Amino acid sequence: MANSKPLLNDAPISKTDRLIAEIKAGGGGQAMGMDQMDWGEKGGQFYECWKCEPCCGSPCNPKDGVMCCVHFTCCGMCTFSRILATTVNQEWACFPHCMSFWCCPLCSHACLRYNLRRSAGVPGNICGDCMCVWCCGCCAITQELRSIPKSMWEWIPDKMAAPQPQAPEIQMVV
Q1: Nearest 5°: phi and psi at 58?
Q2: What predicted TM-score, i.e. pTM, was given to this entire model?
Q3: 42 falls within a domain
Q4: Does residue 162 sit within a domain?
Q5: From CA 59, how far away is CA 65, in angstroms rounded?
Q6: CA distance 38 to 139
Q7: Are 21 and 125 in contact (CB under 8 A)?
Q8: Which class for 169: exposed (0-12), middle (13-18), buried (19 or more C-beta within 10 A)?
Q9: In 3D, which of 101, 84, 100 has the Cα closest to residue 92?
């Protein structure tokens, strides 16, 4: 498979094999997402829904708060698909990025969380990401947004262009 990473013994490993190995190594705590409760400085505690920085500005302010609400309330599918495209190093496109959130938002959000968690260096596996998204999506979203800069999701004021109608290779996890 393309984009494979070497193991310690330098044998290539596919993304699927890496996901399976993470699940096998993680045990019950990781499968339930218990190890993802604290992302440290990159996202804070899972339950800290009241912390809005840097999503609503640093420090929080009404203008940035309104833009955050507009992005995620009115244009949430496009905004989340933009973050997913950024995490897999692709240009934002209607297909597959927006369509993935339209067809299966929970699966797409779990893949997005997996990519953000790995980039933040937080241990875990995709089963735990699914549990966090399924059991408390609001908590998962706020933790994820605290772990990334606004430039990863903010597209309305700067780039009034809609997602491109192109079809890059489908890639959900890195």
Answers
A1: -130, 100
A2: 0.79
A3: yes
A4: no
A5: 10
A6: 12
A7: no
A8: exposed
A9: 84
- Residue 157 domain-assigned (yes or no): no
| One-letter identity of residue 30 | Q
Residue 119, domain member (yes or no): yes
Give the position of tokens 């997996």: 114
Residue 126, Cβ neighbours under 10 Å: how many?
A: 22
Residue 108 is inside which H or E element, if any? helix 105-120
Domain encompassing residue 68: 28-152
* Closest to 80 measured CA to CA, from 174, 172, 169: 172
Q: pLDDT digits over 47-95, tens only?
A: 888 888 887 778 888 888 888 888 888 888 989 999 999 999 998 888 8
The Cβ-side half-sphere exposure at 63, using a 13 Å CA radius, reads 3
Q: What tokens appear for 66 in the block?
A: 């309104």
Distance between CA atoms of 15 and 21, rounded to whole angstroms? 10
